[in-house]
Every structure is written in C-alpha cells, then in structure tokens.
Design brief:
Layout lengths: L2 E11 L6 H8 L13 E2 L5 E8 L9 E3 L3 E4 L2 E4 L4 E4 L2 E4 L6 E13 L2 E16 L6 H4 L4 E4 L11
Parallel strand pairs: 1-3, 9-11
Antiparallel strand pairs: 1-10, 2-3, 4-5, 5-6, 6-7, 7-8, 9-10
C-alpha cells in the first residue's frame, strides 16, 4: 500500500521576537526530523501519516482537517491523498515515489490569546514523500528532491 508521509514543523513568534538574536535562535531549530509514531498519527483511512512538530509558546496551532477521505487541509496546504498532489497558493506539486519535497511558507496572522489581539508570525515547513513502506528516518537520509518557497511573507523583511 502506498503511503503519504507529511511532516510539519511550525515555528511561531510575536513582535517581541523579530530581532536578529531571535531569528538566529529559530534558525537552529531543525526543519526535518525522524518520524516517531506515536505521536505521529494516521488519517482515518490509513493513507497518510502526519508527523507534527511545534516550536513557540503560543496556544495557537495548525488545524488539520480531512474531507471526503481523499483530502487533508492545513494552513495554505491541500493534500490530495488519491492523486498524490500537494496544492498551495494555486500551485500543484505531484509527489514522486521515494523522493521527498520540502515546502516553506511564512505567515502572519492576527490572533486573540489571553485577552489580547496580536500578530503571530509563523514559519511552516512541510516535508512530504510518497512511500511503499514506512521509513522513520526518510527525511534524514537525503536532501529534498525539490524545495518550494510558497508565496506569502517569504519576501517580507519583517518576518526574520
């Protein structure tokens, strides 16, 4: 059975952490990990394994949802589990067996937490691969087949 592995790395910060010091500190957080199941979880139909890592002190997290058992959505990403495609901001990438893709997306959104509204900055990395058999260290063996910077705040100087 063919399996889609999605590994997400979410880094979050607010305005107080826009300094060069904080940017350097965030740069030391890896953007690929070994897959541990649990906490990695399968979608209900066992077609997809989601391995999520989160860094930051905020209560806000990515929300994963599955539609009609063939699509998983979160943030700017839509994953077609039957067609093995990842769509983001109007661009579609076809997954290739045994070759992994890295998607990077910078986001800023307004959130309400602890009775305050503020801008929450996020760097979302999605590592994705199509495999015939689970390999927990698949993202550590090699470099990505393709790296895609998804349009967003990627060009914004303030999102260091």
């Amino acid at each position: 059975m063919t399996l889609i592995i999605l590994q997400t790395i979410l880094k979050q910060w607010d305005k107080s952490e826009l300094t060069d010091y904080h940017a350097e500190k965030r740069s030391y957080i890896p953007d690929q990990f070994c897959i541990n199941s649990p906490p990695a979880t399968f979608t209900g139909d066992q077609k997809c394994l989601i391995d999520h890592h989160r860094f930051g002190s905020f209560e806000t997290d990515l929300i994963f949802s599955q539609y009609k058992s063939n699509t998983v959505r979160f943030s700017q990403f839509k994953v077609n589990l039957n067609g093995y495609e990842i769509e983001s901001e109007g661009s579609t990438s076809q997954l290739v067996l045994n070759r992994w893709f890295k998607f990077r997306y910078l986001n800023r959104r307004r959130v309400f937490e602890k009775n305050l509204y503020f801008w929450l900055y996020e760097e979302i990395t999605l590592n994705a691969i199509l495999l015939n058999q689970l390999d927990p260290s698949v993202f550590l063996h090699s470099s990505p087949y393709q790296t895609i910077d998804v349009p967003g705040l990627n060009q914004n100087e303030n999102a260091k």
